[in-house]
């Protein structure tokens, strides 16, 4: 019924020669080189040796001409003669960005939106035998600047201001964590479809009864073209077995609802399983389409918070309130076609394994590949999906809004069926920048905020019409008139790092009902830095290292936080460790402090914390907790411990510490709480033990632990045990660490097997960082340990011969045979 020809091989590309006609330029036999499809100009220039790797050293500066150039692509392909009644469509899944397309010399398409796939009917234009495709990609930078010169410069943060007029991934213009790499090309696939009839827009908005006992699957699909046969609609269970099916005439829009009693429910990670049903439509004679859907309800709850101003902002999955610990997502590469489905799955699995529940797709990137959302469905990661607007005063003239409407409709139709989709959000920080220029908020002139109609009229209308079961939120951050409100909506907490550069220990003071951005910079792994720098540039504050920190005065701010916390190392290895330890401590302070405010039913004061950011797109000093090589930083493990289903927390007071615990499970837990105070040398000052009962899905305050007032610089530890098993632990050390002199901890590491090792100390140790090889994957790392304890760590791809350790106060990394004892059993 449908024959599809992938048009991914045989392409050529070249820079447009502005001194010759376009016809002659396409016909020229010189300067053409092989092009990869899907791909970008940069990738092909790299492959053909015409540019140096922009990820290395200062090479980014030398490739800016690529984004200022127009590019040509051409392909010759064979096509069979069409039979009577057959249709033929050329389908371009992604054109980046200002593209014109000619088929056999005839202009068939002009596109100006990177996010909108294009389908062009070519039945009357296709030739039997040889056909020629020609594409021109105009420089998005120059074209945007031409539009800006006509319509006016607008306020923004990050990148060239012309980006606000261009529907292209905004991070390509450079951000405070990313380079300026203005890509062009066919960034997603292209194909020729020949058919008599085909299926289009298969949809299924699953609904679940309030008692969770009955699910309805309302299936609809369009038949495009003419045929006299039938369409078979089928519902398959999570086990792949057919639950129900229906045969209907293949004409126009076909609709049928399947009902299932006692369905298998989809849950977010940590709360249950993620079973997925399959909805399939198939035409007689061939041609089919299918979706995987989950049975669940997701609700955003905004209700009064007992005893406080404002309202809550928490998500319920199947009626169960969920604390949404998680992270923000940026595109995982500057060259998008390099991101494979496996890479998506690996990165998102890292998030799930850190007990994360939600991923926010940030509005300066892209609507991600289907593989991203499929992985979130399977892993139980809720998706907060921004529309693609970030940090700017966007225009709203008629042509621009028409393009936005088309873009939004495409995105909503493609993503609405995903079980993981929890929220549509209008933009990233556009309300905040409007407020900063007097265009939003009390006393402002909102007539200057053109895009208000986009965020409060156009986008909510599209969502309500095409995906009414998913909540729409105007922006992030957004709290009504005050985009920085701590009592309404979501908040971006940049009081730490940006703004007044508050101490990271103060994170709990800067709470919001849902903190959707916050972060602390650190360097990436030493191995990644060495792969991106020349040997002579491998020192703190080198020109290359500062170039690979895009945050304006980022190096200065990072030095302030390091200098406030630890003694500043002069060597690069020590500097990497120091920056990463500070980031880990900051994240622990934020997640532990805000999760304490999860409270209980009717008192959900803080309901989410999404770190900026999960990942990186190149080797860079940034706020990411996983660097661009896939290496988890120490902050990753700190967050993982803070988000364990059951965790314990300490807040130091003048005479000791306040103690609390979070039970994120749906059942109460009875555990043993052990409290200890020790000197840095390991002398025990006081200790006590209690049986405690932790309420289900709630925070339980456990009182105050007192410490001898004559004790100098004590550290305090809280441990929750179930029998002999440690369920959760927190150790609070005297701060700042730079004033402390740490005794040698007497570290002992024993390799128990190829997949496990144990770590123990004779004296308290802070920040034990283990490394072996770049491919090693640790279940836990950046450890705080007390004497008398032994921590067993699961590990993959361990190389015992290269095993090293470093800890706060060590001064250097210790190899096997150093002051650490490493025994292979």
TrEMBL record:
Subcellular location: Secreted
Keyword Transmembrane in annotation: no
Domain (Beta-mannosidase Ig-fold): residue spans on this chain: 743-797
Broadest EC class assigned to this enzyme: hydrolase
Occurrences of domain Beta-mannosidase-like galactose-binding (ranges): 11-188
EC number(s) from the headed UniProt entry: 3.2.1.25
Classification via SUPFAM superfamilies: (Trans)glycosidases, beta-Galactosidase/glucuronidase domain, Galactose-binding domain-like
Subunit structure, as described in the record: Homodimer.
Family statement drawn from the similarity comment of this UniProt entry: Belongs to the glycosyl hydrolase 2 family. Beta-mannosidase B subfamily.
Record's protein name: Beta-mannosidase B
Species classification: Bacteria, Thermotogati, Deinococcota, Deinococci, Deinococcales
